[in-house]
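User: Please check token order:
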Amino acid sequence: MSGVQFDAAAIRELAKILRETDLTEIELVEKDSRIRVARQITVTQVAQLPAAAAPLAAAPAALVAPDPAVADAAHPGLITSPMVGVAYLSPEPGAAQFVTLGAKVAQGQTLMLIEAMKTFNQIRAPRAGTVTRILVDGGSPVEFGEPLMIIE
């Protein structure tokens, strides 16, 4: 990193904008320099019981259902977004989707596109398998690290 100088004030200002706007990532590009500031947001869900509810220990374990979002996040076949952009499941409007639920895919096969800064980026299968979940809709915005699809 010798010879590279960073503008600390610009980085602080970008971080401030992230906090104020609730964005997770922001990038500034000027001539030959580029500054990208990103933050990781951890979301925790807290269930609150009504005041008159019985203690949780009294409830049978079978009544407590696991949160599907938590299960998806821990799945070994989860594919997440490598960037902020807009997800497209087909190559163009009206065309068939790249993959559908239950489809067998090969390693390197295009699963979807993410448009970022007017550039369409192919999201490819990291391994062969079967598409068991598609977690985004075509044309929907996605964040960096957002779950896109599960391949088993």
